[in-house]
Amino acid sequence: MTPPNTPPPPRTSSRSSSPVIAPGPSSHSSPRSSAPPVIALTGIGLITGAGDDVEKGWASIASGTTGIRTNTLFDTSELLTDWAGMVAEQPAPAALDRCYALAATAIREALGGSGLDLDTVDRDRVAVVVGSSLGAMPTLEAAHRTFVREGRLDTARAVASQLPCVGDYIATTFDLRGPRVVLSNACAASAVALGYAAELLWKGDVDYVVCGGVDPLAELSAYGFSALGALDAEPCSPLSASTGLTLGEGAGFMVLEPGERAAARGARVLAELGGYGLSCDGYHQTAPDPSGKGACAAMAQALDTAGFAPGDVDYLNLHGTGTPANDASEPKALKLLFGQEIPPASSTKSILGHTLGAAGAVEAVVSTLAIDRGALPPTINTRGVTSPFALDVIPETGRAAHPDVVVSNSFAFGGNNASVVLNRPGHGGTSRRARREAVQEVVVTGVAGLAGAAGGTEALSAALAEGRPCFEAYEEVAGVGEVPVGRADLKAAARGTNPSRARRMDPLSLLAASAVNDLYGRHGKPSRGEAESTGIVFATGYGPVTSVLQFHEGVVNSGITGANPSLFANTVVNAAAGHVAMLHRYRGYTATIANGGTSSVLALQLAARVIARGAAERIMVVVADEFPAQALATQAALPGYARSAHIVPGGRTGTVLSEGAAAILLESREASEARGAQVLARVSGFGATGESVGIGRIGRDGEAWARSLRTALTDADLAPSRIATVVSAASGHPLVDAAQRSALRRAGLADRPVLAPKAVLGETYGSAGALGLVAALTGTGPSAPAPGPLLLSSFAFGGSYAAAVLDTEG
Q1: pTM of the predicted model, to two decimals?
Q2: CA torsion angle 140 145 151 156 (round to 10)
Q3: Is 280 part of the annotated catalytic residue set?
Q4: Is 470 one of the annotated active-site residues of the chain?
Q5: Cα 581 to chain centroid, rounded
């Protein structure tokens, strides 16, 4: 396999009481024997400025008819342009956030076109995987604008417009109860989502995946890109004049399923999802590596996974934003991979605008249509300029063709590169074997964490051993009074980072970097070569809240003069991953998950799957969560928030919010042995489930939660009695603790010893699962679990659950 940082040869023809360890009565998972399935794409849905369904959109795209028009959604008078790829008709119902309405429209079309009757299938095995950069940003902006101007916080609107709610809305609207995950790698988000969906299907976790991307037009992005000077005054001219980008909006969704299942139900297969590749540049927060090496690595990995060679590619749907930096670096990447024989390529952003986190899925739908309809979409608005990169950009009008293999590229802030391979049904690779099945064992070789007042692993372990809460600070919340909170010391977090770098980093990034620095201080730093081949999977519950609120407050108060471009660069959820990658020269696989309280476990799952199938040797899983004053105010106003720093999981005391971060290093067994690393645990199994209970809710009966626990045990080939310790998600919140208690009983785990780290660490949401693992692997005295298999339990409000099994005797 081509190393992820090496271009392939030129083309030739993814709680105060002590933490509770309750006494209870006193394998080795092997790769699947059957080959991973071919992934059939059986339904597509599309809504963009070019049309509000597939047929209208394709007619415009194929004919080169622009979908870019005057933006009438908000005032653009201070911006560099009023052009945007705006959806002409308001998706119904109008009262619904535009993001949710766009997603629902595309999903209904995809499901209808697939012929899949959800009433006839096991909805527990239908996953929701969605990529988004902004989520319900219009609603969040409105709520924040009212807060800034009037000092009034609409808690209900704020809660219902967090990024993880995109997946929760979809799952509830369509009653989908399988695994659920929201990916947010900025403009590569939905391309990464396709990769996550592929990992679920290749492993056999689910029967179907509703996968795609959605982003609405929003002030945040429009003012941000204007502040960066990146918008074109006219409709964009990608790969030609290259004078800036045009923002767009939309949604692209698809129904994915194993090929054999599609054949059995007589479904028409539009294309196959052959493979995907992800890499990070580790170069700059907003600009791509000018050498194109990272983009080349992503394309090479995608082809390698799919079993194709560069010479098999017939068409390229390029990232092609129209900015000078992107339009110069992407062609270099193509030349590194294809040599002088670069296939026909186009940028459909010239027609649709840049739909940000939706772009990867929208353009995958377009690429699927190119295969199915026998035509290559054009690049329009070339302004009579021949591509200066000697590319065949299919100028102005579409071209009849019958592409068998298509590569679709999506790149993003933070140096994220994503490529997806789609191919004609039945058209397999002829030159190499596809790389989709588990071939190696995955182990944990490093852990570190911080939470609230415990600024590092040593302090965290001491707090756990002493039963000393990390959340004894009190802050005043209007209308509520003084409440406890676990605040991280950001100045201390920044000490291990070069000051010139630290000044560019937001709180979330500083917390993430501090955890990684601590891990390396405890377990040793890698060589330069090891670092450059390292990937990073970042996860967070709710993202860079401080940066988003500060940037938007500047816009609300001062318009474009208050739009701070440095702040804007940190508003994307994956910014922390980009900063850490630059600090440590990571060039490998990268993805970012924003799924509330299940984020840690889902990140561990993704990283382990990628390593297991040989697409990476080591991946640093980094999870961080920060809760500025407005986030605390929102949480404290909700039922179940504690009024004192005395938390008893299961004791109905209420929960306390705490900032935190963790770093977990995963490696293949072989790679860890080669560098003489100490193995702390072996990764054994995962389980992820959902329920359709609505945004901000969880089921009281614990049944869906229990399914995640049972699934993880099955994946690890373990009986419940084999679990040495359950690392609990209990936090003192009455509803959550009762639901988990029921889940443990339903899963046969009620009598197992329990470690409840939130008694000391507080509720860190996204980083809770990873911090639970840190607590289990670094605990001493009464906080140390017995050797043997650990089961991590996690939940997210909105009704999603994830569990993991790791064996400390492995």
Answers
A1: 0.94
A2: -20
A3: no
A4: no
A5: 16
